[in-house]
Amino acid sequence: MTEPETLSEARESRINEAVQFLDDEFQRVQRELNERRKSFEKEFASKRKNVEKRTRKELKRIQSELKKNPIVKRADAVRKDVTKEVETRVDSLLGLMQIASRSDVQRINKKLTTLNRRLKEIEESRKTNGSSPSIKEHHPVQG
Prior knowledge:
single chain, about 140 residues, mainly alpha, 3 helices, about 85% helix, elongated
Protein backbone atom coordinates (compact mmCIF):
# COMPACT_ATOMS: atom_id res chain seq x y z
CA MET A 1 0.00 0.00 0.00
CA THR A 2 1.08 3.48 -0.63
CA GLU A 3 1.48 6.09 2.01
CA PRO A 4 -1.36 8.38 0.78
CA GLU A 5 -3.78 5.47 0.99
CA THR A 6 -2.60 4.69 4.49
CA LEU A 7 -3.02 8.32 5.52
CA SER A 8 -6.51 8.50 4.07
CA GLU A 9 -7.40 5.21 5.72
CA ALA A 10 -6.03 6.53 9.01
CA ARG A 11 -8.08 9.73 8.62
CA GLU A 12 -11.18 7.73 7.76
CA SER A 13 -10.58 5.48 10.75
CA ARG A 14 -10.16 8.49 13.06
CA ILE A 15 -13.29 10.09 11.65
CA ASN A 16 -15.24 6.84 12.14
CA GLU A 17 -13.93 6.60 15.71
CA ALA A 18 -14.92 10.23 16.36
CA VAL A 19 -18.40 9.65 14.91
CA GLN A 20 -18.79 6.49 17.00
CA PHE A 21 -17.57 8.37 20.10
CA LEU A 22 -20.07 11.18 19.44
CA ASP A 23 -22.87 8.67 18.87
CA ASP A 24 -22.03 6.83 22.11
CA GLU A 25 -21.75 10.13 24.00
CA PHE A 26 -25.09 11.30 22.57
CA GLN A 27 -26.80 8.08 23.68
CA ARG A 28 -25.22 8.38 27.16
CA VAL A 29 -26.43 11.98 27.52
CA GLN A 30 -29.86 10.97 26.24
CA ARG A 31 -30.08 8.15 28.86
CA GLU A 32 -28.91 10.52 31.59
CA LEU A 33 -31.49 13.13 30.61
CA ASN A 34 -34.20 10.47 30.52
CA GLU A 35 -33.23 9.30 34.03
CA ARG A 36 -33.24 12.90 35.28
CA ARG A 37 -36.67 13.45 33.72
CA LYS A 38 -38.07 10.36 35.45
CA SER A 39 -36.52 11.43 38.73
CA PHE A 40 -37.94 14.92 38.34
CA GLU A 41 -41.40 13.52 37.52
CA LYS A 42 -41.36 11.33 40.64
CA GLU A 43 -40.19 14.22 42.81
CA PHE A 44 -42.79 16.54 41.29
CA ALA A 45 -45.60 14.00 41.82
CA SER A 46 -44.54 13.51 45.42
CA LYS A 47 -44.39 17.24 46.10
CA ARG A 48 -47.73 17.77 44.34
CA LYS A 49 -49.35 15.13 46.56
CA ASN A 50 -47.88 16.75 49.65
CA VAL A 51 -49.15 20.18 48.59
CA GLU A 52 -52.60 18.75 47.86
CA LYS A 53 -52.67 17.02 51.24
CA ARG A 54 -51.61 20.19 53.07
CA THR A 55 -54.12 22.24 51.10
CA ARG A 56 -57.00 19.88 51.95
CA LYS A 57 -55.97 19.92 55.61
CA GLU A 58 -55.76 23.72 55.64
CA LEU A 59 -59.10 24.00 53.87
CA LYS A 60 -60.75 21.79 56.50
CA ARG A 61 -59.19 23.90 59.24
CA ILE A 62 -60.45 27.12 57.68
CA GLN A 63 -63.92 25.65 57.19
CA SER A 64 -63.96 24.58 60.82
CA GLU A 65 -62.91 28.04 61.95
CA LEU A 66 -65.53 29.66 59.73
CA LYS A 67 -68.27 27.48 61.20
CA LYS A 68 -67.27 28.76 64.64
CA ASN A 69 -67.27 32.40 63.53
CA PRO A 70 -70.33 34.27 64.90
CA ILE A 71 -70.78 36.22 61.67
CA VAL A 72 -70.88 33.04 59.60
CA LYS A 73 -73.24 31.42 62.11
CA ARG A 74 -75.54 34.43 61.91
CA ALA A 75 -75.39 34.48 58.10
CA ASP A 76 -76.30 30.78 57.99
CA ALA A 77 -79.21 31.34 60.39
CA VAL A 78 -80.43 34.29 58.29
CA ARG A 79 -80.16 32.19 55.13
CA LYS A 80 -82.26 29.44 56.71
CA ASP A 81 -84.84 31.95 57.96
CA VAL A 82 -85.08 33.65 54.57
CA THR A 83 -85.45 30.29 52.84
CA LYS A 84 -88.31 29.31 55.16
CA GLU A 85 -89.97 32.69 54.71
CA VAL A 86 -89.72 32.51 50.91
CA GLU A 87 -91.16 28.98 50.91
CA THR A 88 -94.03 30.10 53.17
CA ARG A 89 -94.82 33.09 50.97
CA VAL A 90 -94.61 31.07 47.75
CA ASP A 91 -96.98 28.46 49.22
CA SER A 92 -99.30 31.25 50.31
CA LEU A 93 -99.20 32.87 46.88
CA LEU A 94 -99.82 29.54 45.15
CA GLY A 95 -102.77 28.99 47.48
CA LEU A 96 -104.24 32.40 46.65
CA MET A 97 -103.81 31.68 42.96
CA GLN A 98 -105.23 28.19 43.48
CA ILE A 99 -102.10 26.55 42.08
CA ALA A 100 -100.85 23.34 43.61
CA SER A 101 -97.46 23.45 45.29
CA ARG A 102 -94.77 20.87 44.63
CA SER A 103 -95.60 19.06 47.86
CA ASP A 104 -99.31 19.01 46.88
CA VAL A 105 -98.46 17.53 43.50
CA GLN A 106 -96.18 14.95 45.10
CA ARG A 107 -98.91 13.99 47.59
CA ILE A 108 -101.47 13.65 44.77
CA ASN A 109 -99.01 11.61 42.67
CA LYS A 110 -98.49 9.26 45.61
CA LYS A 111 -102.26 8.77 45.95
CA LEU A 112 -102.62 8.22 42.19
CA THR A 113 -99.85 5.63 42.26
CA THR A 114 -101.62 3.80 45.08
CA LEU A 115 -104.95 3.95 43.21
CA ASN A 116 -103.36 2.69 39.99
CA ARG A 117 -101.75 -0.21 41.82
CA ARG A 118 -105.06 -1.17 43.42
CA LEU A 119 -106.87 -0.83 40.10
CA LYS A 120 -104.35 -3.16 38.45
CA GLU A 121 -104.86 -5.65 41.28
CA ILE A 122 -108.61 -5.55 40.68
CA GLU A 123 -108.15 -6.01 36.93
CA GLU A 124 -105.76 -8.93 37.48
CA SER A 125 -108.14 -10.61 39.89
CA ARG A 126 -110.96 -10.22 37.32
CA LYS A 127 -108.81 -11.82 34.64
CA THR A 128 -107.72 -14.62 36.95
CA ASN A 129 -111.14 -15.37 38.45
CA GLY A 130 -113.17 -14.58 35.40
CA SER A 131 -115.54 -12.70 37.65
CA SER A 132 -116.14 -9.05 38.21
CA PRO A 133 -115.68 -8.20 41.87
CA SER A 134 -117.48 -5.12 43.00
CA ILE A 135 -115.59 -2.07 44.04
CA LYS A 136 -117.11 -2.37 47.51
CA GLU A 137 -115.01 -5.46 48.14
CA HIS A 138 -111.84 -3.37 48.09
CA HIS A 139 -110.79 -0.92 50.76
CA PRO A 140 -111.03 2.78 49.91
CA VAL A 141 -107.83 4.80 49.59
CA GLN A 142 -106.87 6.61 52.79
CA GLY A 143 -105.55 10.13 52.19
